[in-house]
Every structure is written in structure tokens, then in C-alpha cells.
Design brief:
Number of helices of chain A: 13
CATH topology of the largest domain in chain A: Rossmann fold
CATH class of the largest domain in chain A: Alpha Beta
Oligomer: homodimer
Strand content of chain A: 15-25%
Largest interface: A-B, 43 and 43 residues
Number of strands of chain A: 12
Radius of gyration of chain A: 26 Å
Distance between the termini of chain A: 79 Å
DNA sequence: TTGTAAGCGTTATCAT
DNA sequence: ATGATAACGCTTACAA
């Protein structure tokens, strides 16, 4: 027999005060006499009272929950962002609802609607690769909800944008390959509907220009960046005379190394490559892979803090750019 | 100016019926005249009505939410379980709140309490390594909440247990090493307060016994299984004459390979190893690492379905054991 | 088949 | 400083 959980009314009755007084005492209002407050707090603790957040939410019209929306929970990068954001938010008393879109526009709409409907206080998201633009997000997310985008962001939406310094990253990776003596450097560039890939590409081009080299659109591959396409485009790049590639992803970089092997070019002697994301396997492969290291932990933390700060101040969440850094390993150690 | 979202009362008023009728119609009750139902549904759709799940939850005393509790969100294995469980649950209309314990008992208690307080319908969890036993879970989780444990489970708790066939896994991995000609096979065994490690160890021992070999407790390392301890214990094992190890984790296996290298033993010729979990890097390393492949996707799916089925039938969620399979690669290809 | 009314547990408003 | 009261939006006996 479970005796029903005590409510503020139970406490009120036992102490001969009114429920509203108990509510005030519990929520730390100034308008309660010190002694009354003490009696209430003691009784509450004593009878194991616990606030019912659902009732509070119904009354207030908002929950202490934040939705995190990512393309895939099980991608290392996103898992790390989520992990760190979750920690921050939990510490601040927020629950976290996690949703994945599987890179599908339809799913993104669906989960956003579900989050809104359950009255989350904020949404921290990285949009799907399928999104043609931000219009559906604008249409679904009401202005009262704090919106924090990270990694893949739409600049025409309100709210915070927490991003990697992708321009800088593309620039450094490419400059590094140039310095190591590679002559014809192509790029596995990713999807141009996503800002972060456009930025990495821009960095790549700028590095070439700054080194007085031509930009050859013919060796810039605007394609998905998975292992298979990395292999295919790697072959094409090599056949077009490339002796190095900067890849906007590590898996496609992996495919490109396989392509070099397929063509009998030893990496790094005859073919250099730099990937992006510094996946665990990069350091363990042979040759080990140079890669642009991102910082999902910091992104997650900043995203969470941006939201929390906005709640505290009542203002808009604030944006940030996170530094990236190049992990130099064997795969780009120089043309010989 | 946002016009307040329509409620069932708004619909009721406009149609000249009672709110309760609208509620019934929307929840698919039989007790509504076909025509009335149609009018209500049409009006609801037309005015963009959306049910407020918070009000429903307050009324019913339970939400359509499931809590998933794991030691770390960003561990590949757990991220995969979560990802697949989330998909199943979302499809069934459930939200998913994800919590991590960082392997700490205190955090586990905290998040469990938070989930209970927010009235989740079920909890899918894998307990923390720090847990001495199941008593805190029993104390916190009320019987009305469906409990589904996976991977790391306590058998003395009610509810479902979805586990890998760890005994079989440990057995197969060890038998494989025996067949490949390794003579003295040790084990990086993990934590004995966790059933899954006990089972893998049991499998290891049984395989040795079945092959007529002695079980030497001196080369069974009951320690954490991370890269560092894998290295340290790998050194010890080698110094005790081991020429092979079965490791209950891939990272510790990695450390052990490094230990072999440190001692000048070539893997796999003079030192064989089989890891566990089939992490992505296993296939990319050199030598590539043999590993016991687990199936987090299936675990996640089964855990979610077990919960959903229990809700449907009103009964207890049902348990399952998932097959594991050995991925044979270079690191165990034979003593020479 | 539909309406009435009470209530889930909390908080905000107004009055005292 | 406290109390009374009315919501928040929905569901469910019970009545009609």
C-alpha cells in the first residue's frame, strides 16, 4: 500500500496554514515570516515532500527541460557534444530530452514539434543535412523558446550560434599541406548547403591563394563525405594529378587513403592527406592520420551555458566561435 | 500577438458540445456518436489544436516519457544503444530523457530520483560501475515504473534484463586463441561487481578447462579496462609468461598490444590478443584487432520493445539474451 | 450518447 | 505576512 505522496496541501493542513504560504516558502519567496518558513521546510523534509514538476509546468506554461536535437546520437562528435551539454544542464537543474533526426527534414520537423508541444524551455540543435533552409525551423519554433544552434547552424535564425572556426581550420590544414611540399592539393569538401562546409572550403581556397596557387574547381569534390565517396573521389582526384587532399571529414579521408593505396601511391610519400574531426582511429591507423581536431566538449558546454545565461538574464543566448587545431601525424609528413 | 493555443474547451464552445465530449472524441473513445466525432476532429484539425501532454500527465499521473540511464552517453556502445532505443520509442510516441551517471553512484541516485519525480513511464538503464549492489535502485524506483536493464544488470531487481551472451563470448574468444596455438592465455577481466565481466571470465575459464588447460588466477587481471591499465597489466602478463590475452574491452586490448611492443614481442606472431566490443578502430589498426563484436543496436531495440510491450500488455517487460560474435582479424592470427 | 463537476498539484492575483 | 480563490488543460466518474 503506497500512501499517496504528500502535496503542499498536506503540509499546509498539518501546519494549519494555507497552501499558498507553503508554496511561497518552498519557492523561496521573501513574503514569508522566517519562523513560518522554518516550520514549513522542516515539515516538508520530514514527510519527504517532493515538488511535482508537472503541476508546476502546467501552471507556468513552461518546463525545466531542454531539447537537444542532432542528426545522429551515435556519431562520436555529437555524442560528445550531448554528453557535455547534458552535464552542464543537469547541474543547473534541467532535464534533457534528446532527439535525433537521422539527417531527415521530416524527422527534424517531427521532433521539433514534439519538443515545442512538451513546452521545453530551450532547444539546442544542429540541423540535418537534408534541410534546404531554415524556414521550417522558423515556422515551428516560437520566439519564447531559447534557440541555440551549434556546429551546423543557420545564420538567418535568431538565437545563439556556437560553431567551430571552420574557415581557420580549412586554412591551416591546407597551408600545412602546402608547407609539406605537396603540389596539387584537392579537397573533399562536403555539402554546400551547410555553412560549416562552405567555410572550410573558403579556408582551403584562401590558403591556396595566399600561397600564390591556383584554385582548381575540378579537384574540389562537393559530395557526401563518407568512406565510400572518399574512396571514389580520391581515385578521381589522383587521376587528375592530385598528390594531396584536405578532407572535411575523417571517414572520407580514410577512403582517400585507400584510393591512394589502390593507385599504388604510398602515403605520405607520394600522397598526403589531412582529415577533419580527429576521430579515435586517426592516431591508431598506419600511417596515422593528420586531422583537424574539433572540440565537441567545449561546443557542448558553451551551448548549454549560452542557454542557461539567457534564462538567467532573460535576454538572447550569445554566440561563440571555438578554436580548432591541427593534429599533425604521419599522413601529411611530406612529399618525397 | 500570439493568439493563445486552442484547448478542448475552445473546440467545445465553438461546436456547442461539452469539453468532455471533445476529450473523448480526441482520445478515440467508443462513446461518441460518429457524426459528433467527425465534427470535432475536423474542427480540431482546422484550428490547429494540439493536445497539451503536460495537462494529460498531471491528470493521469504518468507521462509518455522514458528515461534512459547510462554511465556515459559518449561511449560508442552506449551511444548506439541509445540511438536505436530512441528511434523505437519515438516511433511509438514516447519522448526520451537521457541521463548519464559518469559511473558514479551518487549521480545515478540523483538522475533516478529526477526521472521518478518527473513521472516517467519507464526506465531503461545500465548501471554504474561504482554501484556496490542494487539496493539504491530498489529503494528509488517504484514498482509502477517499468524497469528495463541492459548490458550491466542486477539480476535481483524486477523487470527485464537485456544482455549480451557474455559467457559464450568469453568462451569463444578464448577457444579461438587456444586453437591458434597460443600457450599461456591470460585475461584482462574487468570489475567483478558487474555480472557481465563475471560471465566473460566464466566463459574464459570454461574454455581453458574444456581444452584441458589449467586456470591460473595469477594471470587474470581484475582491474579497470582502459588503455593505461591494459598497458600495465599487459606488461605484467607478459612478464609472467603469457603469450596471449583475452581482454574484456578494446581499449585495454590496445594497451596490451602496446605492452607487447614495449617488450619487443611482435603481435600476432609472439603475442596474440582478442578484445571486446569491436570498436571502429579495431579494423583500422595495424595489426588489426580481433574482437568480440557486441550488438548495441539490437540491445537498444530489444530494450525499447520490451518496455513498449509491457505497456501494451500491462505485464512485466520481458528479458532477452543477444548473441555476440567473434571478429577474427590479424591480432590473433597465430603463434609462430 | 452527452453533460456535469470534480480534481490532478501548483502558482498568481487579489484581498486582508 | 497570510489566506482565499481561481486558474493551467485535461480526464473520468457519475448523472442524465
Amino acid at each position: 500500500m503506497t500512501p499517496r505522496k504528500p502535496t503542499i496541501r498536506d503540509i499546509a493542513r498539518r501546519l494549519g496554514v494555507n497552501a499558498s504560504t507553503v508554496s511561497r516558502a518552498l519557492s523561496g519567496s521573501e513574503l514569508v515570516k522566517e519562523e513560518t518558513r522554518r516550520r514549513i521546510l522542516r515539515e516538508a523534509k520530514q514527510c519527504g515532500y517532493e515538488n511535482n514538476p508537472i503541476a508546476t509546468s502546467l501552471r507556468k506554461g513552461v518546463t525545466e527541460t531542454v531539447g537537444i536535437v542532432v542528426p545522429r546520437i551515435n556519431r562520436q562528435f555529437f555524442a560528445n557534444v550531448i554528453s557535455h551539454a547534458e552535464r552542464e544542464l543537469n547541474q543547473a537543474g534541467y532535464s534533457v530530452i534528446i532527439c535525433q533526426t537521422s539527417e531527415r527534414l521530416q524527422d527534424e520537423k517531427r521532433v521539433l514539434k514534439a519538443l515545442i508541444r512538451s513546452q521545453v524551455a530551450g532547444i539546442i540543435m544542429s540541423h540535418s543535412i537534408e534541410d534546404p533552409d531554415s524556414s521550417h525551423i522558423r515556422a515551428i519554433v516560437p520566439s519564447r523558446i531559447k534557440l541555440v544552434q551549434f556546429d551546423r547552424v543557420f545564420y538567418d535564425l535568431p538565437g545563439a550560434k556556437i560553431v567551430n572556426d571552420n574557415f581557420r581550420g580549412g586554412y591551416e590544414a591546407t597551408r600545412h599541406l602546402i608547407e609539406k611540399g605537396y603540389r596539387k592539393i584537392g579537397m573533399l569538401a562536403g555539402y554546400m548547403n551547410t555553412d560549416l562546409y562552405r567555410e572550410r572550403l573558403r579556408g582551403y581556397k584562401q590558403a591556396l591563394l595566399d600561397a600564390g596557387r591556383p584554385v582548381d574547381e575540378d579537384i574540389i569534390f562537393l559530395d557526401t563525405i563518407v568512406r565510400e565517396t572518399g574512396f571514389e573521389n580520391g581515385l578521381k582526384a589522383i587521376d587528375k594529378g592530385c598528390d594531396a587532399l584536405y578532407s572535411a571529414g575523417d571517414f572520407s579521408a580514410l577512403g582517400a587513403i585507400e584510393a591512394a593505396r589502390e593507385r599504388g601511391l604510398r602515403c605520405p610519400d607520394r600522397f598526403g592527406i589531412v582529415g577533419t574531426a580527429n576521430e579515435i582511429f586517426d592516431a591508431l591507423m598506419s600511417p596515422s592520420m593528420s586531422s583537424l581536431e574539433l572540440h565537441p566538449d567545449i561546443l557542448g558546454q558553451l551551448a548549454a551555458r549560452s542557454f542557461l545565461e539567457a534564462v538567467r538574464t532573460g535576454g538572447e543566448p550569445s554566440s561563440a566561435t571555438v578554436e580548432v587545431n591541427l593534429k599533425v601525424r604521419e599522413s601529411s609528413s611530406g612529399f618525397r
